[in-house]
Amino acid sequence: MRNKFADALYEIGKTDQRICAIVADISPAGSMVNFREDFPERFINCGVAEQSMIGIAAGMALKGMRPFCYTIATFSLYRPFEMIRDDLCYQNLPVTVIGMGAGVVYSTLGGTHHTMEDIAIASAIPNMTVLSPCDPNEMKHATTWCATESNGPVYMRLGKVGEPDLTASADEFKIGKIRYLKKGAGDICILSYGIIMKMAFDLAEEIYNEKQNEASIISVHTLKPLDKEGISEVLKSYSKVIVIEEHVPHGGLSSRVKEIALDVNSNCDLKVFTLEDKFIHFYGSYPELLEKHGLSLKNIKSKLD
Amino acid sequence: MPDDQFNASESRKRCLKYRRRILDISQQVTALHGAAAFSAMEMVDCIYNGFMQWNSKSESSDSFIMSKGHGCMVQYVILEDRGILSKKDLDLYCKPEGILGCHPDYGNPGIEASTGSLGHGLGMAVGMAYTEKYVLKDRGHIYTVLSDGELQEGSTWENMMMAANLKVNNLIAFLDHNGFQSFGRTSETHPEFYPIKEKVEAFGWETVEVNGHDVNQVYDAIKTRKGNKPYMLIGNTVKGKGVSYMENTAIWHYRSPSPEEYEQAINELDEVSS
User: Fold this and answer.
1) Per the CB 3.0–4.6 Å rule, which of A26, A119, B18, B65 could disulfide with B144?
2) Taking CA atoms, what residue in B is nearest to A62?
């Protein structure tokens, strides 16, 4: 996913002189190295100074540039929060803030490196668009949109490397619209976003194997503006809707889907699975940490029936 | 920057006019931040009317950010004088029908960045200066006015370091060193804040310390700078400069004068001009 992001940025940067990358001490890899070497005047490393990263990006955008700020998610959003709010969102500038390794993917690095509340925090700011693509190809689409079409600030979650391709037979990618990755004949629909999407596929497969109920899977890659209409339609069309998200229970997709369910008087069986509202002091693999939060196939299945 | 000699007496006349205009507006609102505008007055006049290159009366190839956003009354009255803001805009300051508030808002005529929260202006100024110099290739200069309290923000020092790293020698910052912040005199509340000049120089900037109300000193300093580093002019100023009871008195950070106080202030300014 990280490579597709850098590839897309480099390709667009070849022809669009407004594209620039501002990083905070992240060593460039893949196409980001090419970007730095081929467009040195459009690559800035601010060092461990994230407030400066956002402020400089704002200043560059005020002069017509379309900057991408890039560092580990906790540092790209939380540390310079007021710069993001005032400099980017209040002035509505076309700057994309990339949150690398969002969620709890840096499992053994501890709570300081876990980004569990970013969707709630970023979504709370007026003018902000919030994206979380689920696989490398969706990342490419989203990056292209940020670079070429967005007219305001974006916060975008980015995974690490090696995520599987999940969108090969998906609907067209459209910002602000939910996207069917798989349309099943059954009465179950799973909503998810970001790299935990793989769990939605695994869950669908197990449900099919056990009950021959073919679930649909949707990528809610745009968390803000949320496709309320599309989600309303899902709540009307399926008897069971499952939300899986790598985010605390409040302020993310789960709570928003519950709001929509109330608004449309949905009587579907809605089940949400999120990270716990807790700092968990546990040092194991990414799937093991997710499991500690209750995000495992076994736990989800046990609560579905 | 212009080579022609700056006309100091014209500048002083303008500053008198601007102070009067701010006092006029003060009679319409309760909170004004007038004293913060008065301390930066001469420096902001030098920037707009001395240093910035104007392609027309209202179009400049240079940029200005009022990083100490609470001093923006001085910016408003100068923009009015240049015809960029209208008299009506200023008459409707802080009124529901108007567009101007106590801090500058990007999108309003002549306002190139929103400020208000301290510690934001320098970062944006660095980004602007970098773009002008390295991406658009040696075009404009970026001018910004910082408050001394603003130097307590970590973000200011992050950007001070980045400005030097990025070698943005087209960035010229003015420190409105009036020595006061909301809590009181900075030398008493934060003695280790001083010395300022050495700290800024240690961060890779060229600096000078002058009387920020002496337009000749301000103009000459900028004109004779070496120019191979980002530049900071530390202007020693008086908060509320020009009105005796406002000078160095914390309450005037926010307050507007009563009608009687207004009369006294106008009379004092008249005495100075005569």
Assistant:
1) B65
2) B128
Residue-range definition of the domain harbouring residue B21: 9-273
Smallest Cα distance from B136 to chain A, Å:
9
- Domain boundaries of chain A, sorted by first residue: 2-158, 179-302
Q: Distance between CA atoms of A290 and A279, rounded to whole angstroms? A: 12
A49 burial via Cβ count (<10 Å: 0-12, 13-18, 19+): buried
Candidate from A59, A65, A91 with C-beta closest to B123: A59
A144 and chain B: CB distance < 8 Å anywhere?
A: no
Q: Are A103 and A130 in contact (CB under 8 A)?
A: no
B243 within some domain: yes
Question: Is residue B1 situated within a structural domain?
Answer: no
Whether residue B116 has pLDDT greater than 90: yes
Identify the DSSP state of A171.
Answer: P
Q: Residue written as tokens 């928003």? A: A256
The interface predicted TM-score (ipTM) is 0.95
Q: How much is the pLDDT for A151?
A: 96
Q: What is the pLDDT of residue B195?
A: 95
pLDDT higher than 80, residue B271: no
| Percent of chain B's residues with pLDDT above 90 | 79
Tell me if B3 is assigned to some domain.
Answer: no
CATH topology of domain A179-302: Rossmann fold (3.40.50)
Distance from CA of A59 to the nearest CA of B (A): 4
